[in-house]
């Protein structure tokens, strides 16, 4: 596949694993409109490509992401309306939510490597991942309310990740916490103490993902993400149809045959 050109997102695709590194270290990898465009374009490009098995998100030079670019947000107050007539700040905010939803709904496994600042929009991005690996001393938080603004597009993803009770506490307290508390809250799955341990854990997770069929993973994520958004019987009806399709599909035939023949399936390389 051909990946899109990016400005502040370094891309490396190897053996079906896409490493995407936010590269604005001078701003602790805060997300401006260019980073949003980069992320949106990349996740659009891979949406239908099952040769990409997983996306690994991280930040350059020791910080994951310090949130949205407040300087750019402030400048947007004076910008003309967007093409659809919406206020420029409103349009910017909604683009952020659109990006988070694309990451959240990606058919690939999305892994977040969390170190340094994991704040605001960076925290939201972590909450949209499937697997989160964090340094113990990473700094998590929702500082928006302490700056006079709400975590508007981030809040729904935080609620889905950790539940309404803890999300409300973090929201109204501008909560700041480390990796250990992030794991207790359910934001983070694995804690590490240094870069070597993070790389080792990442390789373990990628090894587990490679054992799973990419199409089956995509269907599994889609079914799970419908919970709470659709009637349960409708979800189960749709899930049964998709299960039948998978059983009869190439992956289902290969997977069950490999199990019977006591060998690895073709996707487990």
Explained architecture:
- This protein has 269 residues and is an alpha/beta fold.
- The chain is 48% helix and 15% strand.
- The model has no long low-confidence stretch (mean pLDDT 95).
Shape annotation: globular
Q: Between the first and last Cα atoms, what is the distance in angstroms?
A: 19 Å
Q: What's the helix-strand series?
A: EEHEHHEEHEEHHEHEHHHH
Helicity range of the residues?
Answer: 40-55%
CATH superfamily of the largest domain: 2-enoyl-CoA Hydratase, Chain A, domain 1
What topology emerges from the helices and strands here?
Blueprint: E1 9-14, E2 17-22, H1 33-46, E3 54-59, H2 70-76, H3 88-105, E4 109-114, E5 117-119, H4 121-127, E6 131-135, E7 139-141, H5 155-162, H6 164-173, E8 176-177, H7 179-185, E9 190-192, H8 195-210, H9 214-226, H10 232-248, H11 250-261
Parallel strand pairs: 2-3, 3-4, 4-6, 5-7, 6-9
Antiparallel strand pairs: 1-2, 7-8
Helix pairs in contact: 1-3, 3-4, 4-5, 5-6, 9-10
What's this entry about, in short?
With 269 residues, the chain is an alpha/beta fold.
Task: Output the keywords.
single chain, 269 residues, alpha/beta, 2-enoyl-CoA Hydratase, Chain A, domain 1, 2 domains, six-stranded mixed beta sheet, three-stranded mixed beta sheet, 9 strands
